[in-house]
Amino acid sequence: MPEFTIPYGKTKLTFSLPDMWQTTLIAPKETPAAPNPMELVKQALDQPVGKHNLSDFAEARSAAIAISDKTRPVPHHHLLPPLLERLERVGLSPDAITLLIATGTHPPMSPDEYSAIIPPDILTRYPIKCHDANDKENLVYLGQTERGTPVWINRHFAQADFRLVVGNMEPHQFMGFSGGVKSAAIGLAGKELINHNHAMMTDAQSKLGHFNHNPARQDVEEIGRMVGIHFALNVILNENKQIVTAIAGEPRIVMEHGIPLVKKIYQFDVNAPFDLMIVSPGGHPKDINVYQSQKGLAHAAQVMKKAGTIILAAACPEGTGSDKYERWVSTKTSYQDVFDSFEHEGFQVGAHKAFQIARDASNVRVLLLSDMPDDFVRQLLLMPVSDLEEALGQTLEGLSSDARIGIMPLANATIPMLCEV
Length: 421
Description:
The protein is of the alpha/beta class. It folds into two domains: 3-30 and 271-418, LarA, C-terminal domain (2-enoyl-CoA Hydratase, Chain A, domain 1, Alpha-Beta Complex); 37-265, LarA, N-terminal domain (Rossmann fold, 3-Layer(aba) Sandwich), CATH 3.40.50. Helices cover 31% and strands 25% of the residues. The chain has 14 helices and 20 strands. It has helices at residues 37-46, 76-89, 120-123, 155-158, 182-185, 191-198, 215-227, 251-266, 290-301, 323-330, 335-345, 351-361, 374-379, 388-396; strands at residues 3-8, 11-16, 22-25, 63-68, 97-102, 128-130, 139-144, 150-154, 162-168, 171-172, 176-177, 231-237, 243-249, 267-270, 274-279, 304-313, 365-369, 383-385, 404-408, 415-418. The chain has a six-stranded parallel beta sheet, with helices on both faces. Helix 10 crosses helix 12 (351-361).
């Protein structure tokens, strides 16, 4: 029997499947890492795309850099040193360069967690602040987008002379792609902005792998222009979270250069839907909590038969990752209850995560393998399993001989595309 391995937290799970079924591994294309990632980042900074070089901001007296929080596998140890060195080279002193941890609506990180994402020599040399979307005193209002989104953004970022974003570019379930201005336009935004923008996820055009005509993403692009985000440094990672390439420069042009490569690596075309899918969001930190792991479920659901089964193996050592989501879903008794309440109450961040899960889990059976207690998983309206063998035992027995089985080891970063043949 063929053997397969998928990430689970900081470990891996290995399992076998009988060869009587057609099995498809749906994963990013194997892509070699850059042999010298730091040099690659330096080259990107020295040869930026678009109209701005870092030296164009030599007269800036302050700079603010949006960086990702612990839920994103961004290799800050390769990105920040060359960027900060160049900012100092153009005349900015270390105390004039603030790193802002872009959390969006994720819980703010405490200072004792900063070392998990920021190299120690940077921690001691530069001011570092963690964004809080609920801290209205540290937000400024810049007006509304054409789609009516109220632009509340982090005060420290908005008031800096030079505004930069650092992150990775990868598929996103309703923004199409992460990267570019999103790190600040959402990561450093107020709750009201994020609520209004994320409500667009219900639009049919707000979907995985789509950028130009995606209303949620284009709203983010407009927010970026209103904030005045000058410069982006983005990397594209391979399946092992290693840097493949780096792109720096004008944020919109960075996206235009990066998206074709992201598709080349992460899009996987399939010719028919699946009866069973074994899914890992991608291991730590992609499965650090339910909030992040849900993305893998959403990606897999796009190529499933109705009433098929998804086994989601997501460790979730930090539980749900959202007290608001947890409280909201704990009062619901069914997926229909989720739909009715969500429609009646209007869009709310937190509740939207329950809606996204219900949207997919109402069409397929979802079995969740995690480190969370079974009773707690049931409160989230999900079905717990104690190990992968148990989950496979529940599903393989009922499959017909012509059933299609898929395996997605890096589901959060995979674009499964159902193609007509």
